[in-house]
Write a structure and sequence with these properties.
The protein is built from 11 helices and 14 strands. By secondary structure, it is α/β, with parallel strands linked by helices. Helix content is 38%, strand content 16%.
């Protein structure tokens, strides 16, 4: 099968990791995969074996990425024209970000099947910023879910979430050669004189890092064995603590080592509970106990689910986790089994089954 994935720009975010890994797995299985992108785009951040089709403002082949030129709506026009030129040569066109859904829907691609892989309810994130540009982007994202494209979502949450409707989901995958328990990782919490909490540093309020910091300060006041490690930094201005360490993770291998270095991973996002959240899944794959407000893969048998926007609830969960070795071991083992079902070959095969099943229904 020949698959074309149009993107406006490549970014170092989880959604683009998913696209690159799907493409790599499909190519390994014998399919042909190409990315279509304006020549002004950034290069792919996540390594991919897919071929690149760079197009200029007229949708014509640009040969190579020039890293400069039209931005904004001109990129959309470039992508639309590129789809009209190259789309008919492919069996499947896979939209992913809300803005790419519009040129995919409007383009003339003959018999190519058009899909929209919805990886999040984007309006929530746009509208949270409360400025004119974000309001426009949120409105466009909301409208994209009404376009006549076959929607595949990445969690059951989105089968009927606000104005998204779908009947099939494909979760994101994990590289289990990277995200795995450390050698000799079995250890009793606090046995070496410290209990290391971990979180991903994000400035966006909906990521909830403020509740982690509040919980950590209170836990440290009770027990000075507690320490905090924050991947990527991004701490609130003026906040510091003698027992807080910022970890600069520059790639997946370093990120995996970050997870392996902590005793507990806290992921207290405040929106779209039930959606996939990579820190939760990656920590589970590394055998690390997870405290979270409830994201895909995390449940009462695999993690500690806490109340939304509540540092009190985080404190109670951490104390319960630390004082229950047997329960902690049990939930971590079950979480690891869940994570192992998200190996990229399994996930990419499930997505391919969805694409082929829909195409076969169209031709019968």
């Amino acid at each position: 099968m020949k698959i074309l994935i149009p993107v406006l720009d490549f970014q170092p975010t989880g959604g683009y990791r998913v696209l690159s890994e799907l493409a790599n797995s499909w190519i390994e299985s014998g399919h042909q995969v190409s990315f279509l992108a304006p020549a002004a785009s950034n290069p792919p951040y996540f390594p991919t074996e897919a071929s690149m089709i760079w197009v200029d403002a007229k949708g014509a082949p640009a040969g190579v990425r020039n890293g400069a030129g039209a931005r904004g709506i001109r990129q959309l026009i470039s992508l639309y024209r590129g789809l009209n030129r190259f789309g008919s040569d492919h069996d499947v066109i896979l939209a992913n970000f809300s803005l790419t859904a519009f040129p995919v829907s409007l383009s003339r691609c003959k018999d190519a099947s058009k899909f929209y892989y919805v990886q999040a309810y984007e309006p929530d994130y746009f509208w949270y910023k409360k400025n004119l540009k974000a309001l426009l982007m949120g409105t466009l994202a909301k409208c994209s879910y009404w376009l006549p494209l076959k929607r595949i979502v990445n969690a059951p949450l989105y089968f009927k979430y606000k104005n998204i409707r779908s009947d099939v989901y494909v979760p994101p995958g994990l590289d289990l050669e990277i995200f795995k328990p450390a050698e000799g990782s079995a250890r009793k919490l606090g046995a070496d004189g410290s209990i290391v909490l971990g979180c991903i540093g994000r400035l966006e309020p909906e990521k909830g890092i403020g509740f982690v910091l509040e919980a950590f300060e209170r836990l440290y006041q009770k027990d000075q064995r507690y320490a905090l490690r924050v991947a990527f930094g991004n701490l609130p201005a003026g906040w510091s603590h003698e027992r807080c360490e910022v970890i600069a993770s520059r790639n997946d291998h370093e990120l995996a080592r970050f997870y392996q270095s902590v005793d507990i991973l806290i992921a207290p996002g405040t929106v779209q509970h039930g959606a996939p959240h990579y820190p939760v899944l990656e920590a589970m794959a590394c055998g690390i106990p997870v405290v979270t407000t409830g994201y895909y893969g995390a449940g009462d048998s695999t993690a500690w689910i806490v109340e939304n926007k509540s540092s009190d609830s985080i404190v109670k969960a951490v104390i319960d986790l630390v004082n229950n070795d047997e329960l902690t071991s049990s939930r971590s083992r079950q979480a690891l089994q869940v994570a192992r079902q998200l190996e990229w070959k399994i996930v990419s095969a499930k997505m391919m089954d969805c694409l082929e099943s829909f195409r076969s229904r169209r031709t019968t």
